[in-house]
Write a structure and sequence with these properties.
It is built from seven helices and 13 strands. The chain has about 500 residues and is an alpha+beta fold. The strands form three sheets. A six-stranded antiparallel beta sheet has the order 2-1-6-5-4-3. It has a five-stranded mixed beta sheet with strand order 8-10-11-13-12. The radius of gyration is 52 Å and the shape is rod-shaped.
Length: about 500
């Protein structure tokens, strides 16, 4: 049972059926109440009409024995102001609901049967009349009540109407006439029976239709699930799930799933290439180092110590690069320390021949590369730190990689400039080499990519420096791009969000 109602199809069917059931019960209750109210109102109108017909006869002086009390076999009582029954339907055997249970008329004290009587009582203050009536007048107010009566052995429920009337001789009387409620009971019972039979059938139809509709709507989802299970089992990320032609949420889900599979396939392929390239890069220095050690073991006098140290350093740098890339890929968040980029640039360029540093703190104005990129930055030439929030170690690695790349390809000089550009801190590294072709300006940031021809003078780099530099820039919320330098070489621009200047406390 739990497995059945664990499906979306079953829950949708149950939910729709419950909603329709609640709506049907509410609507059915409203219909029954409205039907009963209308029928009761109609019965009350009929009872009042009958009572007023009898009251009209009394008002013109008709004797009790001559009244039309047995029309349509409806119960009628005529009560005087003392509550005594003075006239009633002939076959009335029992009555309730009128306040007078008597069914046999009582003779009047004078023996009169309703004719012209000159009695002294004018009945003007009768409680039954409710209002003072003139002789021969029928009261406007009608009182309605429910009860039952037995006529000729048949007992039924009735709605009674009480109408006050004053006869010509001043007698205050009240006429009770009833209208049967059998039609009301029959109509309500019939409607209730129809509802009790029809509502379950309607709910069954609603549940069946909902089951079919949801099954048809969820059929593509089942196909997507089966294909995803097959992809998981086969580990074939080139496969795609079917996209239905419905242009609805399910179709968009299938499209998004295929986009996710494509991104996953691309990521896995990049990871495979990365592992293959890393293995290739590690193989060369390891093989060289092993060869040197084997030669040294056989002929110690031929040991190339400098070469062995160089290969070892190359392995160490490559291992450090791979470790940093792995940490970046794992989503490692940079530290939130304040880093002065001008001081960091001076620190990284220290001891590097042919490298000069200019920053806005030195009052040197715009950097050598400002005109090639975005023009003069805001605040150029103003004194002060150019600080950002991040990891000093990772940002230093970015500058070191950019400087290593620039020195490998520069003819004679490398220039580093640090400045503020609005809310950004900009570090530009320019060389006077041959530059980077426009078609390769994004490709050089891919891992293990090294351009040949004019930029093939590589002193052992694995093609990871620029990839690491861009990844670190992105992790710090910035960008790293390459343009053409004013001297014709390559201009690398690192743009990072500048840290907010701290306002000194007031003294």
């Amino acid at each position: 049972m739990s497995r059945l109602f664990g499906s979306v199809r079953a829950r949708a069917t149950l939910g729709a059926t419950l909603v329709v059931a609640v709506a049907l019960v509410a609507a059915g209750t409203a219909v029954l109440l409205s039907l009963r109210s209308n029928l009761l109102g109609e019965a009350g109108t009929q009872a009042e009409r009958s009572a007023r017909e009898v009251a009209a006869e009394l008002s013109v002086g008709t004797r009790y024995t001559e009244l039309s009390l047995d029309v349509d076999d409806r119960p009628v009582q005529i009560v005087d102001e003392e509550g005594t029954l003075v006239a009633a339907s002939e076959d009335l055997e029992r009555i309730s609901g009128t306040g007078v249970d008597a069914v046999q008329p009582q003779p009047t004290p004078t023996g009169d049967d309703g004719g012209d009587d000159d009695g002294d009582d004018d009945g003007g203050d009768s409680d039954d009349a409710g209002d003072s009536l003139e002789p021969g007048e029928i009261g406007e107010r009608t009182t309605v009540s429910d009860g039952s009566a037995t006529i000729g052995g048949d007992t039924e429920d009735y709605r009674f109407a009480a109408v006050p009337v004053e006869t010509r001789n001043g007698d205050q009387l009240t006429v009770y006439a009833g209208a049967p409620l059998s039609a009301e009971h029959g109509a309500v019972n019939t409607a209730l029976t129809v509802m009790l039979i029809g509502f379950p059938l309607l709910l069954a139809v609603v549940g069946w239709v909902t089951w079919l509709v949801t099954g048809r709507a969820l059929r593509p989802v089942a196909g997507i699930r089966r294909e995803m299970a097959a992809i998981t089992a086969s580990e074939d990320l080139a496969r795609r799930v079917p996209v239905p032609d419905t242009h609805d949420e399910v179709a968009r889900l299938a499209s998004t799933t295929n986009e996710t599979l494509a991104a996953l396939e691309s990521s896995v392929e990049r990871q495979r290439r990365f592992v293959a390239d890393a293995s290739h890069e590690l193989r060369s220095p390891i093989a060289s180092l092993r060869t040197q050690l084997e030669v040294a073991a056989a002929h110690p006098e031929l040991l190339d110590l400098d070469g062995a140290v160089e290969d070892t350093v190359r392995l160490q740098r490559l291992a450090a690069d791979l470790l940093l890339l792995a940490r970046l890929d794992a989503g490692e968040r940079p530290a939130d320390a304040r880093v002065d980029l001008a001081a960091l640039a001076r620190e990284e360029t220290g001891g590097r021949p042919g490298v000069s540093v200019r920053s806005q703190g030195d009052g040197a104005g715009e950097g050598a590369a400002d005109g090639a990129a975005d023009g003069a930055g805001e605040g150029a030439g103003e004194a002060g730190e150019v600080t950002v929030a991040g990891s000093r170690g990772q940002l230093g690695r970015v500058l070191a990689n950019l400087l290593d790349n620039a020195q490998r390809h520069a003819r004679s000089a490398v220039e580093v400039s640090v400045r503020r550009d609005g809310d950004l801190a900009v570090v530009a590294v320019a060389d006077d080499g041959e530059g980077v072709p426009a078609g390769d300006r994004e490709r050089i940031f891919e891992r293990f990519v090294r351009l040949d021809a004019a930029r093939s003078r590589d002193d052992g780099g694995a093609g990871l420096g620029l990839a690491i530099a861009r990844d670190v820039a992105v992790r710090h919320g910035g960008t790293l791009t390459v343009h053409e330098a004013p001297a014709g070489g390559a201009l690398f621009e690192l743009r990072l969000p500048a840290a907010q200047t701290l306002t000194p406390p007031r003294t």
